[in-house]
Design brief:
The structure is a single chain. About 25% of the residues are buried. This protein has an 8-stranded antiparallel barrel. The chain is mainly beta and about 180 residues long. The protein has 1 helix and 8 strands, in the order αββββββββ. The radius of gyration is 20 Å and the shape is elongated. Strand 4 and strand 5 form a beta hairpin.
């Protein structure tokens, strides 16, 4: 009986804290994103840290790890499937262009990206240093309840100095938790 009462009390406190305030796009709110993404070469996992500067503007630092496979032309008669891991960080700003009743937000995002490619068992020697670039895209937030959002974004990245592929798009899905 005591365990049931304790569990009910904890669930009540949790639901009250989640639904008690409208904490969505409010200055000073901090958030964490956990996203899974993909493109035609593989998939990625992202962890983002978000800070809302106003109702319409927020900043985001996104750490990502992508497992990718791409066909590379080695010579006129030979191609190679190149397996590599792309690690990096995106430093992004976002502007909320559309707000549907404080439930759906459509944001433009853009900023800088730093990437590092780690090649797996490659016959071809590629330069594996940190490379800068730019990123931009669209992010959609849907708040089914306060403090938790379902996130979807499309982001295009252009990395300077890539030998084989300087542009890359990612489609990501996941959750954002506001604190």
């Amino acid at each position: 009986m005591k365990k049931s009462l304790l569990l009910c009390g904890l669930l009540f406190c949790l639901s009250a804290s989640l639904c008690g305030q409208g904490i969505r796009h409010v200055k000073g709110i901090k958030s964490v994103d956990v996203l899974y993404g993909f493109n035609k070469y593989g998939n990625s996992v992202n962890i983002g840290f978000v800070n809302y500067f106003s109702e319409k503007i927020y900043g985001k630092v996104n750490l990502f790890n992508a497992e990718l496979t791409q066909e590379v032309v080695v010579s006129e008669t030979r191609t190679l499937d190149l397996d590599f891991q792309r690690l990096g960080v995106d430093i992004l700003g976002a502007y909320t262009g559309i707000n549907f009743n404080e439930v759906v937000f459509i944001n433009g995002i853009g900023g800088l990206t730093l990437t590092y490619n780690q090649f797996k068992d490659s016959e071809v020697d590629f330069d594996s240093k940190i490379k800068p670039g730019i990123a931009g895209g669209v992010e959609i937030e849907v708040f089914p309840i306060d403090r938790i959002a379902i996130i979807s974004n499309f982001i295009q990245k252009y990395t300077l100095g890539e030998e084989y592929s300087d542009t890359r798009y990612y489609i990501n899905f996941g959750l954002r938790i506001n604190f």
